[in-house]
Amino acid sequence: MPEGVMKAWLESSHLNGGNIVYIEELYESYLDNSASVSAEWQGIFSQLPKVEGSEVEYRHSAIRDEFRALAKQANKQVVVSSGNDAKQVKVLQLINAFRFRGHQNANLDPLGLWQRDKVRDLQLSHHDLSENDFDKEYNVGSFAIGQDTMKLGDLYKALRNTYCGSIGAEYMHMTATDEKRWLQQRLESVQSKAALSVDEKTKLLQGLIAADGLEKYLGAKFPGAKRFSLEGGDSLVPMLKELITRAGAAGTKEVVMGMAHRGRLNVLVNVMGKNPSKLFDEFAGKHDEILSSGDVKYHQGYSSDFVTPGGTVHLALAFNPSHLEIVNPVVIGSVRARLDRRDCDQGDLVLPITIHGDSAIAGQGVVQETFNMSQARAFKVGGTVRIVVNNQVGFTTSVAEDTRSGEYCTEIAKMVQAPIIHVNGDDPEAVILATQIALDYRNEFKRDVVIDLVCYRRHGHNEADEPSATQPLMYKIVKKHPTPRQLYADKLSAEGSLTTAKIDELTAYYRKLLDEGQCTVDQWRPMTEHSVDWTPYLGHEWDDDYDKEISLEKLKELAVKLSSYPESHPVHSRVKKIYDDRMKMATGEKLLDWGMAENLAYASIVDRGDRVRITGQDSGRGTFFHRHAVLHNQEDGSTYLPLQNIREGQGPFDVHDSVLSEVSVLAFEYGYTTAEPAGLTIWEAQFGDFANCAQVVFDQFISSGEQKWGRLCGLTMLLPHGYEGQGPEHSSARLERFLQLCADHNMQVCVPSTPAQVFNMLRRQVVRPMRRPLVVMSPKSLLRHPLAVSSLEEMSTGVFHNVIGEIDELDAKAVERVVFCSGKVYYELLDQRRKNELNNIAIVRIEQLYPFPEQELQAVLKEYQHVKQFVWCQEEPQNQGAWYCSQHNFRAAIPEGTTLTYAGRKASAAPAVGYMSLHVKEQQALVTQALTID
């Protein structure tokens, strides 16, 4: 190739000097994971020449680190002969191999059951090294041992201590170089060994004594009772106390924890400071009479204060149903609310801790969903410390063979490149070091981190279960295996840190506390300051009076603000048309449509100084192109939110297009509202049908949290519902399921039919001091229906009408039939009646189906006492919708001696038909049926 052509090719090639840094970064990513680069680059890198006799290419960054280290020794005599040059590279490869795969040969299983093959990459021979090289000095590159060169024998020992001891660290899957080097420094500088004083060791032993002592006490006092013992995973107690203490020293003010059953009672007593006498009373069958239903003791939450070197930390353990992992997004939501209240966007002031089972973290999809939320704008909290109590058996199932497909139960954490620290639960000092590193990583990088506490379960899934029936080999070992307390006490005694007499004294003292029913946690303090004051929201009923009106002048002012945006912010032509119309609505030229009324409700709330938070798929614009709370600049993509610009000092307005999940996002928002009673928190389903993916949250938290746990929640759920011929998965929000959950005045189920109604319904949820969930069957076609409009005057009253009577001027005495209905079908009934001039049929809308407004309905029916025919009309099939769950309420409200019939679709397995022609035929039939007098 001619010289000029060669020069031109080199200057244009991706291999020229200007791109070398970028190419090296690509190459390092390729070495970590070949799939992380494009197929083209995979082809280029795979063709690069290999070092003879080696299967692993060495990273250029490590070579650069080596030469930088050598440069610093310019005035030193460096022992590197020409014969050592090749082996020097092999030594650096050896270091890298331990960082990548050392965890696979770490001593993690207390029972010694794990059968793990030797990893070739960790053998000297694999790198053309041997014990004959042990006395030779080599440069150690970036190995964070505090010296530049080491004898190979010392280096090999240090590598095994660091990566193949009681801690097995997985972090080389991460692409962030600074995070990997931070972890390397923390592990390698101490060779994964904690440096604890005698006092710290004593406190560590006390934690193990407490964990072991409580379980033995309960086992003796209440034999056979379910307690989901922590035995085998005892190190969890000192781990949590270390986490809280260290977090408090770093400035954390609150810690929110979520965990399933295993070890929960132990955490309540030995970490949270719950008085053991109260726990004993619960075992004995005594309970608090305040709650209507209550819950079993291993579902209960708790709150307390905990003294740390940095000040008092408020602790909260979330209530948890048996749907194990669902508590994770609830905890994260609670943390986000606390952070928002503290105006802390980095996560420093509130720490979330979630505790998982090994089978559950690998098996339940909400874990993946919660990991996926961890860095999303609407849901991030500065990282979560995730602890797996890995007892190596799921209920009665062999974990490795049946409950997962990956090597570890923690593989899912790699999706967000979280570091994973596996640690042997029988080495409590290693547990403490793993805990310190995990928390410091979280605080430094604001990302999730996982501690895999590898332990065992001394008893069966519960204390009535016989584990040997399904795990005979494991439980032969377990029965002979000493407890973590015994192992550590023997270690401290052998090394001379504590005498046997002192250990016996500590054990006896803990037993004395239990016998006397005294708090076992020295750091416990009674709560002096709750994170939020719920007092204003307690003891209220539905019909309590409250200041509901809003002046017409204020509404007009807010409407103008809401409809304004900078001229320098060009929006889409369709959006501009919507906002031009909104300005006309604000000035009285047009009546308000649904989108304007809804946004005006939010404006009135933030104008009060309260927060509005909305999450859901497409919530910024609204799935049906109606809300447009977020205006997108068509030239530069920037956004402008009129609701964030209502006035100086207004309440926050946050609207987020959520991750594509229902169950985790709804659980998050439930957690948010249980920690933040003020303001309006909304979860919006893209289609109401999709709420069925979150049914566990409705069943186990929203509908029954107050009855089981005394937890108030003012969450609002907007579930688009209505039959427009869009098929069985885009029609029904399954109204019947929510009505079936209704009892004890636990929540509200509303079907508003006008913009004024939605305005006053949303305001009522904030202005009225009672805090209970609100389920809304929100509309689709009504968003633009010409009859679904309202005036500002209708909104200024502040009244949400649970029942709306006949709006046309009918002669009440001439009415022969009254049709009850809810939602969109009202407008079809109204249109058909007007067309057919059926002036002897009245239509009554029931806008709130629960709590059922019997007195209000009876008041509306006063002028129809002579009517004999009453009918309930619905779009849903007969076995769905409100008919079966509410007909007893309709019958109780109508006059005696009258009949109540049904008009609607016949019972169906599917929520709706899939063919438009059939839908239209059915819809016309049910309207005709409702308007036909027998």
TrEMBL record:
Gene Ontology CC terms: cytosol; oxoglutarate dehydrogenase complex
Domain of life according to the entry: Bacteria
EC nos: 1.2.4.2
Gene Ontology BP term (one): tricarboxylic acid cycle
GO MF terms, alphabetically ordered: oxoglutarate dehydrogenase (succinyl-transferring) activity; thiamine pyrophosphate binding
Catalytic EC class: oxidoreductase
Keywords assigned: Oxidoreductase, Thiamine pyrophosphate
Domain Transketolase-like pyrimidine-binding residues, every copy: 592-785
Cofactor requirement: thiamine diphosphate
Family to which this protein belongs: Belongs to the alpha-ketoglutarate dehydrogenase family.
Known role: E1 component of the 2-oxoglutarate dehydrogenase (OGDH) complex which catalyzes the decarboxylation of 2-oxoglutarate, the first step in the conversion of 2-oxoglutarate to succinyl-CoA and CO(2).
Protein's recorded name: 2-oxoglutarate dehydrogenase E1 component
Organism: Colwellia psychrerythraea (strain 34H / ATCC BAA-681)
The organism's taxonomic lineage, starting at the top: Bacteria, Pseudomonadati, Pseudomonadota, Gammaproteobacteria, Alteromonadales
Name of the coding gene: sucA
